[in-house]
Every structure is written in C-alpha cells, then in structure tokens.
Amino acid sequence: MTALRIFSYLPNPRVWKATIAARFCGVEVEVRGASGKELRDWLWDYDAHPLSEQERGELASLARTGKVGLTGAQLYKTDAFMAAHPFGNVPAAFGAGGKVGIFESNSIMRAVARLGEAAFPLYGRDVYEASRIDSFLDVSLVFARDSQIYLLALSGGTVDAAIHDRARDAFAIYASGIEQALSRRRETLVGDGISIADICFAAELALFMNEYGRSEQLDKQGLTRILHPGVQDEYPLMFAHFARLVAHAHFAPDLKPYVEKLRSKAAA
Question: Which ranges carry the GST C-terminal domain (predicted)?
C-alpha cells in the first residue's frame, strides 16, 4: 500500500530526498508528475493527471496564475489541493488517502523517515541526533533559497551580479560547514550511519549542479561558475562524501544518471 503520494515537476532532486529515504526504510512512495512545462496541462490534485481537452473546459474555474517557477502560467489547482497545500507549490505530498497535505521537500523526507523508523533510523537514534539532523536540514534551507533564486535566474536569462554573489556566498557558507562537519575523518554528517541530513545534502548539491549547463548565460554577464574546476580542491571532504553517496545503492537510481548528465555538460 502506498504510504505517500508525491506530485511534482520532474526530474527534481528535492523529490528524490523522499524516494532515497524510502529505499532505506522500505516505505512505498508513489511519484506523479512531468516536466515543468507539461505541468501546465495537469490537474493539480491528489489524483493528479494530464487534463483532457474536455476537462480543461469543464474545470476552467479552477485556473490559477502560477508564481515561482511557473510564473504567469494558468495552472489547474483543485480546492482540495489548495486546502492540503496552502502555498500551492510542488513538490506536494499526500498521506492518509489525500486528506493530509505535506509540503516542502525536507518535511516530505521527514515523513518518510518517520514512517519507516522501525526499519532504519534515518532520523537519528535519540532526540539529540534527531535535533542535530534538524540543524543540518535548517541550514540547508538557507542555501536552498539562494540556490533556487540563482538557478531560476539562470534558466530565465535574468541572472545578474547581485544574484550571483548571493548564491556564491550561500554556497561558500554551506560548503564550509559541511567540510567542517566531515573534518574528523567522518563519513556521515550525523552519528555513525547515513541519515536524512546526508540525503538532503546530496540532493541540494545535485540540484545546484544545474549551473553546469548555464555557462553561456554566465559568460554573457561576465560571471564565473561557482562550481568552477577547482572547487573540489577547496572542499575535498564534502565532494568525496557526495561521491560516496551518489554511488550508494539507495542513492544511485535517482542521483547517478542525473549527476552524470550534468557533469557531461560541464565537460562540454
């Protein structure tokens, strides 16, 4: 039985926080979605699906104007979807047969970890480990906010020096903290095993690697890549940890082909 259903644009490393966690915990997670452009033609609901032409006409009253990521698009969001997800964003998760909405990727990942805690302690082995894990997840939100602004500006052709500088500084702060956390010959961020802190880190860094495919936009603005060729020498422990995670059996199905594709763009 599906414990959690997630609706989102795809591919999306932030959705993979939940699917990676699910593999560790043996939790069944269903993912529905399509590319960002295609989601304009979907019904945003627990029963999310592509709209037929007939449905589009019948459900015209549900059309709402998109904001972040799909700015200005007409999106068909049901009242039930908005009740479950008051901010109207994806990824959008549903539990309890669609009656409970869970939003924000870290919270969705936490839900999976809680559902499967008896199988694998992804959320720590005691209250102190769980709280330290939360510390890493909270810090990731600061980095994620600036990285999202930066990546959307790159994809939309609106990046400027101010946006680039904020993203560069956010990355440096985040990477320095991860490097420090791993500096005592550690192979995980918290405790003695992989936790959702590691999963979140891997997903956010993988997402940030979309910068690799935007060299042309950066060149036009006279800006340099934040993930420049020498960045791995600046944060060797962090990138070694990222490589271990991407190669892990529970991470690889989602992250490995995604990361390899982005790295091929960097090489080109």
Answer: 126-268
